[in-house]
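Fig. S4 source data, part A: sequence.
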Amino acid sequence: MWGGIACESGSVRPTLIACSHGTSSPEGQAAVAGLVSAVAARLPDLDVRAAFVDVEEPAVTAVLDSLHGTPARVVPLLLSAGYHVYVDLSEAVAAHPAATLAGALGPDPRLARLLADRLHDAGLRDDDTVILAAAGSSDPRAVEDCRELSDALGQLIGRPSPAAYLSAAQPRLDAAVSRAREEGGRVVVATYLLAPGFFADLATRSGADVVTPPLLLPGAPAPAPLVDIVLDRYSR
């Protein structure tokens, strides 16, 4: 059983369509491509294809059409489940009976651990105030996903790490950083974004003393736990 699709012995497993948001940032494009390549390298006999919700091509509908009704599993390379998962991708998959839709990558305790490791690599101090920076969504389910992840991160680093957002939801990151600054001590932002791009640039301009990098970086190997999560979503 792969992605809710029963496979007979010896049959080909469903194509894994790794669908990210899309970005105009060359660094972000390279970083996401590196993740897709790492997923494909982990299972070389699996057909792995990249697709995008917005900005880049090919669109997920085009990739599904190109498979001509053969089984596929769309894995959103998104850290929370909002409009793109519940509407865009759900509608695309519904139009293709042989396709199924996996859950978003987050929340997942392995993502919290990656963020905690990034904070420690950045020199986290005992008296630092930590804020988790997420893209933001108008869908309350996506906001709750981010809050759940921020709670998990807080448990790992032994202090609150409330979520703040770069768009759509409240509180906004720059306002949260300003409020934290009034309490004294350093303000450290844990960047809960998949790759470099517009939102990552906004996070670096938030006024924090330290801003950790996104989960993926161009030229660096995709973190193994992130590859694990993608494959877990595919196989559920």
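Fig. S4 source data, part B ends here. The two ends are 8 Å apart (CA to CA).
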